[in-house]
Amino acid sequence: MSGGVVLDIQNGTVRLKIHKKEGQSVTLKFSSGDYKKLTGKLVSSDQWANIRLDQITMPDGG
Question: What range(s) does the Sm domain occupy (predicted)?
């Protein structure tokens, strides 16, 4: 999987499983509509995995 992944949010919720290769970055793109709160959970089956939520960019660039 390369490039951006566009999420289709239904009723304010989306679930997604991504299987990526070592060293690969994944960018998720979505529109939150009228929702003002974002929650997420990042998990890995590898106990030594280095996973993180790195950056959230608002539509106004902020």
Answer: 18-58
Confidence of residue 40 (pLDDT cuts 50, 70, 90): confident
**Rounded-to-integer distance, Cα 42 and Cα 40, Å:** 7
Tokens, residue 21: 């290769």
What's the angle, vertex CA 58, arms to CA 25 and CA 39, rounded to 5?
A: 70
Half-sphere exposure of 17 (CA within 13 A, CB side): 3
> How many C-beta neighbours within 10 Å does residue 30 have?
14
Give the number of domains in the chain.
Answer: 1
**CA–CA separation, 59 and 62 (whole Å):** 7
Q: Which residue type is seen at 43?
A: V
**CA–CA distance, 25 with 50 (Å, rounded to integer):** 12
